[in-house]
Write a structure and sequence with these properties.
The complex is a heterodimer of chains A (104) and B (418). In chain A, helix 1 crosses helix 2 (40-54) and helix 1 crosses helix 3 (69-79). By secondary structure, chain A is mainly alpha-helical. Chain A has helices at residues 5-19, 40-54, 69-79, 97-100. With 418 residues, chain B is α/β, with parallel strands linked by helices. Chain B has 2 domains: 5-253, Thiolase/Chalcone synthase (Peroxisomal Thiolase, Chain A, domain 1, 3-Layer(aba) Sandwich), CATH 3.40.47.10; 265-415, Peroxisomal Thiolase, Chain A, domain 1, CATH 3.40.47. The longest helix of chain B is centred in the first third of the chain and has 17 residues, at 75-91. Chain B starts with a strand and ends with a strand. Classes of the chains: A mainly alpha (104), B alpha/beta (418). At the A-B interface, helix 2 of A face loops of B.
């Protein structure tokens, strides 16, 4: 998948700052939870930073498709109108973990 | 038979020092940790009647904490993490060897995560962008954020509670920890008081209450002066104190150093007024008596009182009246001091920090001075107060703590049995 290098770098930089690691070591194929160790709260914090960085609002229903770095990059590109068609996003069969794990 | 409970570890973050040795050295020298507030940027300081506070200067969590748990919590919880790290190390307790379900945490906090709370509220109202409220806002401002992060940091799975009764919060934390261990519900309770809310809104709120000192803005070190005739209100402080409480049997089994024994506690309400104490001191005297009764002691056994003594005109006078009411002619033989004269009023942390001063007095025989006690107020006739450190053999000490909401607490400690 071709990605906008500026957007990709910005997102990987945000991830790198959050994870305290070199953005160059973060790959588009990496899964946010399984590979990068982000729990559901950390994913929400990351998306909060991305919303700020790109002046976006990410609706709740879009969260389910954002499970790896590449999906986040393509989602932002789509939202910013940088690509014409969205990246293939696998529909989640069940509710996102980011919503289901919290106590109220 | 109920378990005896002892104090086996201490830790502190205070305006006169981070770490027990720094704190205690400065306290015995009568140093003041009160300084001028430099900025509530962008709000001009001119609008504040009071301009001084007991601030913990140059605090950066990464310099003090050996774990990442301080990164996503507010300043008061960071203080709690640092004071607890010290107290646990001091106690020699090794969590890996403990039954984690038998180690509890009880935190007293009056205000909680106000740094983030104020920032997020301000931004929301200014920018009107609800989606920009930080996702960590709720977990941070929830009052049990400190007790929660402490449990995660140390794997303590026993009772985990937060007590919020304004300025008496952590005296109650000590008392509830005592009960918890006495009743056999835990072997160890990490007992903490923490607050850090010298923030533009909270500070303005206390100014509006006319509760803060404003006469000594040009001499910050003089502003907190409990029992002195020229006192004119309290000085806000910030900090945290941690005391490791454990059953005497558990401490003995692991050959722990014992600083003191905690033996009595009382909790009462005056059911009188949100911010004003009863002037006759009856309820305060009753609270102290109840705590002594809980300890199986009488007023004749008390050698030292760590007074609540915030430096307000009415509060100090009521406490002195109550002490005289209970201890009668023996009052003048009892050493009294006011830790807030050194560090200001640390709100929810005050009980724990006063508890640390009490325990250290029992352990070392040294009672720190009451700073700025230059002109004794005849309305507060307590001969045991001193501008200098006192060396006394202290066998029994009493800690007072009172909170807004008509709330009183008293805690009794005694010298460790040899």
């Amino acid at each position: 998948m071709a990605t906008d290098p500026t957007i990709s770098l910005k997102i990987r930089t945000a991830l790198g700052e959050y994870l305290k690691r070199d953005p160059d070591t973060i790959l588009l194929t990496q899964h946010l939870r399984d590979d990068l160790g982000l729990d559901s709260m950390a994913v929400i914090e990351l998306l909060y930073r991305i919303e700020e960085a790109f002046d976006l609002q990410i609706p709740d229903q879009d969260l389910t498709g954002l499970t790896n770095v590449g999906q986040v990059v393509h989602y932002v590109e789509k939202r910013l109108g940088k690509i014409e068609s969205p990246a293939p996003v696998k529909k989640a069969a069940k509710q996102s973990k980011s919503k289901s794990k919290k106590k109220s | 038979m109920r378990s005896r409970v002892v104090v086996t570890g201490l830790g502190i973050v205070s305006p006169i020092g981070i770490g027990i040795s720094n704190f205690w050295k400065a306290a015995l020298e009568g140093q003041s940790g009160v300084s001028a507030i430099t900025s509530f940027d962008p709000i001009p300081l001119d609008g504040y009647r009071s301009k001084v506070a007991g601030q913990v200067r140059d605090f950066a969590i990464e310099r003090f904490l050996n774990s990442p748990h301080g990164e996503r919590v507010d300043r008061y919880a960071q203080f709690a993490l640092v004071s607890t790290q010290e107290a646990l190390a001091d106690s020699g307790l090794q969590m890996a060897k403990e039954n984690s379900h038998r180690v509890g945490i009880i935190v007293g906090a009056g205000m909680g995560g106000m740094v983030m709370a104020e920032r997020e509220i301000t931004q929301l109202y200014q920018q009107q962008k609800p989606h920009r409220v930080h996702p960590n806002f709720i977990p941070t401002i929830t009052l049990n954020s400190a007790s929660g992060i402490l449990a995660m940091a140390y794997g303590a799975k026993g009772p985990n509670l937060t007590i919020s009764t304004a300025c008496s919060s952590s005296a109650h934390a000590l008392g509830q920890a005592l009960h918890c261990i006495r009743e056999g519900r835990a072997d160890v309770v990490i007992t903490v008081g923490a607050d850090a809310s010298i923030t533009p809104l909270v500070f303005a709120g206390f100014c509006s209450l006319r509760a803060l000192s404003s006469k000594f803005n040009d001499q910050p070190g003089k502003a907190s002066r409990p029992f002195d005739r020229s006192r004119d209100g309290f000085v806000m402080g910030e900090g945290a104190g941690t005391l490791i409480l454990e059953s005497a049997a558990h401490a003995k089994k692991r050959k722990a150093k014992v600083y003191a024994e905690i033996v009595g506690y009382a909790a009462t309400s005056e059911a009188y007024h949100m911010v004003i104490p009863r002037e006759d001191g009856i309820e305060v005297a009753h609270t102290m008596q109840l705590a002594l009764t809980d300890a199986g002691m009488t007023p004749s056994q008390v050698d030292y009182i760590n007074a609540h003594a915030t430096s307000t005109a009415i509060g100090d006078a009521v406490e002195a009246t109550a002490i005289r009411r209970l201890f009668k002619s023996r009052t003048d033989k009892i050493a009294v001091n006011a830790t807030k004269s050194l560090i200001g009023h640390t709100l929810g942390a005050a009980g724990a920090i006063g508890g640390i001063a009490s325990v250290l007095a029992l352990h070392t025989g040294n009672i720190h001075p009451t700073a700025n006690y230059d002109d004794p107020d005849p309305a507060c006739p307590l001969a045991g107060l001193s501008l200098s450190a006192q060396e006394r053999r202290v066998k029994v000490s009493l800690l007072n703590a009172f909170g807004f909401g008509s709330n009183n607490a008293a805690v009794v400690f005694k010298q460790a049995t040899k």
